[in-house]
Specification:
The complex is a heterodimer of chains A (155) and B (287). By secondary structure, chain A is mainly α. Helices cover 60% and strands 0% of the residues of chain A. In chain B, a hairpin with a 2-residue loop joins strand 11 and strand 12. The longest helix of chain B has 23 residues. Classes of the chains: A mainly alpha (155), B mainly beta (287). Chain A: Keywords: Heme, Iron, Metal-binding, Signal, Transport.
Chain lengths: 155, 287
Amino acid sequence: MLRTTPLLMVLILALITGCASTSHEPPAPGLAITPAADDTLYRALGQREGIQSLIRSFLYVIADDPRIVDQFAEAPIDRLEEKLNEMVCVIAGGPCHYSGDSMRRVHRGKHISNADFNALVEDLIKAMDREGIPFTVQNTLLARLAVFHGDIVHR
Amino acid sequence: MMRSVREKYSCVLMLLALALLLAALPARAGSRLTATGGAGSIEGSAGGGLIPWAVLTGTASDTETGAGVGMSHAWLDDYQLHTLSAAVTINNRLELSVARQILSLDTLGLDSLQLDIFGLKARLWGDLVYSRSGQFSAGVQYKTLEDDALPLALGARQGHGVDAYLSHSKLWLGAAAGYNLLSSVSLRATRANQLGLLGFGGPKNEAYHAVWEGALALMPNAHWALGMEYRQKPDQLNGLPEDDAKDLFVAWFPQKHVTATLAWLDMGRIAGLDRQQGVYAALQLAF
């Protein structure tokens, strides 16, 4: 049994990393992500109004977060709010079009650390809690946003 | 017996001191999400209780320093295993840990065995939550028995040894009908008998064993995790067979600094006594 164990481990690891990398999507212009296959998440978030309310809460939470609020000091808040609405709508499968720059471009030269990114995610969770968004819906949205991590951090 | 009692008290004092130190620090938490530091393990490294995971103690992110102290107790059929531990995480890259395990042998009419564990774990690459391929870490644990007379008499070759492991963990966001799943697998090279409490090496085998360890947990909400762990153990001592260990656990994360774990632990046969099972309880304070 012991002899077969390393092989088993390698297989498990290969399976995990293999499965993880097969879902890699070809980058689309703009958001660099393929829109969702269906609108389940969009409806679960309360469609356009629900997403608008969420993004507004999110911006209020960020404004109260001394860890990262300074990162947004120069940001045009109205444009940011509009693009965030479009972005969440698109990745949730809603009938929207994302007109902003790619995540990689937006964050280039900003030197966002993992600590900044984690703080932002924590703020989003706080906003989703405030909006009464169910845990399972929160997780699904976070999973779709998680793919941007590499485009945002250390750029 | 007196010595054992004194050791236990000194450990409690040590823990109290560390807890006070922690409390005295300005209340702050790392920016990683709650529960991403695992729950602490009986070997001091961040993990699920029985095994280390690829995560590092606390919630420190790449620009932060974190730390944690933990204590656990397992009430097995014929033994009790008590653990105290402390760990520091630097920039979510390196974790240094110390742990003291005390196995009381009251039912054998003997004193206790004390094992100290010094651990080093490095996150190699990836992020538990955000990387497609999860988080990979490698670690070493230097383990040394305070008194190796009994283990050597039972056939162990040494009273100290080094374990090395490679670990992969991933939090699968929304993977189970919207709920989060956590998986962790590790490959360990070890010569330890009963985690090292019964020494290292033995007449049946001189070389290192490759053993695997795994954990799977479901998070029904942001503050709870239900899971199981499995840990393969070598079997090296004549006449004292050793079995794999497993547990079923519930972990509670009331807030970022506190983790409480309750588990049903099955260590299998230990030093000639069958079916050592019982309740495991652990508390970890971290930031």
